[in-house]
Amino acid sequence: MIKKIINSNYFYAFIALCCALWLFFFVSTPGVGSTRDSNQSNTSTVTKKATFTVPLQLQADVDKYYITGYPENVKVTIEGPSALVTATKNTQNFNLYLNLKDLSIGQHRVQIKESGLNSELTYTIKPKYVTVNIQQRETKKFAVDVDYNKESLATGYEAGKTEVSPDTVTVTGAASEIEKIDKVIVKPILPKGIKSSFDQEVLVQALDKNGKTVNVTLDPQTVHVKIPITIQSKQVSVNLKQQGSSTNSNYTFESDVKNVRVFGTQDQIDAIDDSIDVPVDVSDVTGNTKKSINLSDALGSKVAFTDPESISVTINTGSSSSSSTNSTNSTSTSNSDSSSTNNNSSSSSSDSTEDNNNSEQ
């Protein structure tokens, strides 16, 4: 019976009907596949906006012309499908440029253009127009001068011959700007009171006769500047000399320091002999004493400084020996007077004895 039913055409018709109903419900009911397609559709329709900076390119004969006035970078805002905006921002696979190929020498207002952006994107560029100056290009070499404030050096220190490396630079610019250049210079800034050699990279400047910067390109833009800074010195002996008025003329001076080293410029050192006179003021000295003499103050502008900076001087007035002499003289006088008294006493005693003898007779 079951076999007869299975072999029946009605059975196959029933199976076909069930399959058709199943397919109908599968298509009409949302499933995993339809959800994925829906999400993809929604993503493609979501828009996004992004702003970023892009280098500005030139389409011109830059070997022949020198062009100024344009920015190196410009801002671009793009809008469109989210995925496309993100990809464009990350890759920046498009160009913003100025087409100057057909322009003559002079100033021109030129629109910034783009190439390579997807047609589904809209964009705005800021600035939209720029004013460029096209001039005949010229290249010239200049020697580099050095200008610095020598007052920055510490007292007594001198600067030697300045070394600049490289000592020439290549200047490129409009021919009219090159003609304005009066000098190419570096201005190293030395610290106040510098005592050691200056050794740094310094920015190069092209200046006109009024000291204003000329609009040109320098290669290299910095140079190495070395300024040797030194101080001269010399070992000399010390001569202690009396200074100031006093009634005592028997002063003598003693110091444990016999030699000092003096420092200064080459001219100062050359002007000093093998010894220096150090004045010792005695105008306020009334007895044996010690004084500390500041050598820089004593020598004035003859040197920058000394080593040591000061020395201790013992001043002897000779008053101790004078007092001793007076004391000795006083003692001698006293002894003489005592002897005279004793002699007188002896004489009186002799006279008295003689009188007694006469009386007995």
What does this structure look like?
By secondary structure, the chain is of the alpha+beta class. The chain has three domains: 44-127, RNA Polymerase Alpha Subunit, Chain A, domain 2; 137-230, YbbR-like domain (RNA Polymerase Alpha Subunit, Chain A, domain 2, Beta Complex); 232-319, RNA Polymerase Alpha Subunit, Chain A, domain 2, CATH 2.170.120. The model is unreliable at 31-38 and 320-361 (pLDDT under 50). Strands 2, 5, 8, 10, 11, 12, 13, 14 and 15 form a nine-stranded mixed sheet that branches. The chain has a five-stranded mixed sheet with strand order 6-4-1-3-7. A four-stranded mixed sheet has the order 20-17-19-22. It has eight helices and 23 strands. It has helices at 2-6, 9-28, 32-45, 82-91, 175-178, 266-270, 295-299, 319-360; strands spanning 47-59, 65-68, 73-81, 95-99, 106-111, 113-115, 122-126, 129-146, 158-159, 163-165, 168-174, 183-186, 198-207, 217-219, 222-227, 229-230, 232-243, 252-254, 259-264, 275-281, 289-294, 305-307, 310-316. It is 29% helix and 40% strand.
Write a short abstract of this structure:
This protein is α+β, with helices and mostly antiparallel strands. Helix content is 29%, strand content 40%.
Please outline the major beta sheet.
9 strands, mixed
Instruction: Specify the CATH architecture of the largest domain.
Output: Beta Complex
Give the beta-strand count: 23
Number of helical segments with 4 or more residues: 8
In CATH's first tier, which class of the largest domain applies?
Mainly Beta
Shape descriptor reads: elongated
| Spatial extent as radius of gyration | 54 Å
CATH superfamily of the largest domain: YbbR-like domain
Average pLDDT for all residues: 82
Pfam families: YbbR (PF07949)
Organism: Companilactobacillus huachuanensis
InterPro entries: c-di-AMP_regulator, YbbR
Biased composition (Low complexity): 319-361
